[in-house]
Amino acid sequence: MNLVSSADVARELRVSRKTVTRLVESGDLTPVVRGPGLRGAFLFDPADIEALVAERGAHT
């Protein structure tokens, strides 16, 4: 499985990386992997991102 970074998610959703972090903090998006440390990188399953894009599209 190829995982995608927060930057990739931000581009796909057309939001900032900070917004991606907020989505994770709110539970709306769950990373598959979180890197070590306080500022560890998030990596996401592309299928989860596609589902979120579809959901957000349905609300606009």
From TrEMBL:
Protein name per Swiss-Prot or TrEMBL: Helix-turn-helix domain-containing protein
SUPFAM superfamilies in the cross-refs: Putative DNA-binding domain
Origin species: Rhodococcus tibetensis
Positions of the Helix-turn-helix domain: 4-56
Membrane-spanning parts: none
